[in-house]
Structure formats: structure tokens, C-alpha cells
Amino acid sequence: MRGLTSSLLRLTARGLDLARLSTPLSVAAGYARATAAFPILSFHRVNRAADPFFPALPTEVFEGQMAFLARAYTVLPLEELVERMRRRALPRNALAITFDDGYRDNLTEAAPILARHGMPATVFVVTGAIGTTEALWFDRLALGFKRTRVTGWRAPWNQVMPLESTAQRLAALGGALTHFKRMANGQRRQCVEDTLVGLEVGDEGPLKNLMLSWDDVRALMGLGVAIGAHTVHHPILSQLPADEARAEIEGSWAAIRSNCGRAPRAFAYPNGGTTDYSDAVISLVRDVGFSCAVTTRFGVNTAATPPYELRRGGPWEHHLPTFALKLAGYRLTEA
User: Does residue 216 sit within a domain?
Assistant: First the structure.
């Protein structure tokens, strides 16, 4: 049934596109509800690598999506939209674009496309990975499962997972990511190291230039991209003691201010689900000096949305007409 629904949606979207109705429908959706609402799109990587261990939106797909958004939406900086939200002065067809983590292809692939279409964005950086050769823990795992030559892995939950095919390796990686995300920081760090030892992969050279440098970050700013904070080391903040959570939040704020000459205004909770942050974490984010924060909770944002719990998401469709139709539909969902 799900496959049939997806096929019908794609067929409908294609028909609307052929009739040149995708853009008018998207504009009309902004006026179809009683109050103005804006979605926040979230991306991570944009490139042509087609590497399943390091998922990315293909550059040509991103180009098509941005060209469509430039025609159909008023794309504004996230921070400006939050200020307009507070003043109850949201444009009817507004939208914001964000990226998480701070991958270098945000500069080399995504930023030129954004600049070509005159669209702003916010990149949330994990400051501990910027300007260093340190990769994020989940990328280190991905490389390990991609390059290992061992044929099986005993997971911490005592399941032996085969690693003989790409599909098996991806399944093992997915299981590891899901399991490790829920661990306390210290336990997760140890499990990551133990896993990499077990996979017998020591060379992490391919990850050396995965992330932005501070020069890259400043280059993004020169292209009109705002820089937000995404902690120092990407922990799940709700699992940290208060002093460690503050150090992660405040440390990322201070690193950006020191290296960029201005303090960040927006913050992104790592993982961003309802259990990944708390009222105490929200208070810390506010006290450090951020004016807003984004989650990964589904929905759009209105004047009633808490500015430190902004909704954010897809659609993550590669088929442009379906992307356009789903995005128009999302605007009609409840905040």
C-alpha cells in the first residue's frame, strides 16, 4: 500500500509539473492557512560521490531544488525569520535553509549554487571538528565499516553481524549508529574505539579534509552564509551532566565568536529529537546567548512556535516534482 501511495503521489506531482502548476500551488499553499508558517529545510552533505557510507544529496538534485525554491518561495535567513516570527511579521511564503555538522562540501558544492540563486542559508558547525583532522565519531565508524576486511562484527548488544557485502556492512553501521547514539558520552567513545579496533582499520586519512577549516567557514560567511553552533563534539545533550552540556554549548559559541569575529545567533541540537534535549538544555542555550535553536521535529513554524524548539526537516525527495508537492503539503500541517 505504501508503494502504491508513493507511486500515485509521484504521478500526481509529475502531472502538476507538466501543467506548470508546481510553482503556483506552492505559492498558494502559503496563503491556505489562517496564520503564516515557514518550514526550515535541513541538509548535511551535497556532492557527486554517491557513496552509501557517507550519504549526500547529489549536486544536480540540490541545484534543481534550489532553482525551484528561488522561483516559488521567499528564502530568508533563519535568524531573520525568527525575528519576524517574534514580531508576527512573517512573509506568507517564507522558508529557511540549513546545513548540519560543517562538511567541506557545503562550501565547495552547495554554497556556489546558493549564491547563484541569491539565497541565504545557515550552516551549523561542530566546532571541535573545524580546522582539525578530527572527524566526527559517526563518520569514523562509517569509514571503518566501509574499509574493513573482517567478515563479521560482534556488536555490543551481543549480535554477530556479517560484513561480507555492502548491504551487510551498511546494516551493521546503521545498527551501531542507532545503539551508540543512546550511550553516555564516555561509554560511546570507548565503544567507537573498540569497534574500530575490531574492524582492524587504523588509517583515517580519507577523513582528513572531510570537514570545513576556519578559513572555509569565513569564506562561507563572505558568500552570505550564517554560521550557527552545533556543539563542540556532537553529544546528545540530554544525556550530559549540566556542566558538560554547558561546556559543549558555550564552547561552540565561543569558538565561532573567536574565529569568525561575531557570535552565532542560532543553535542546533545534535540529533534533535524530543528526547535529545530538555528544558534544562534549552535554558543553557538561552543563557549562553543564542536567540533561537532548531530541532529535527517534524512541522512548520508559526508565531506560536517556541523559538528554542523550531521544527525542521525534509522532504528528502530527489524527484523534483514530488519534492515540490510534498513541501507545499507540509505548509498545511499543524505547527
Answer: yes
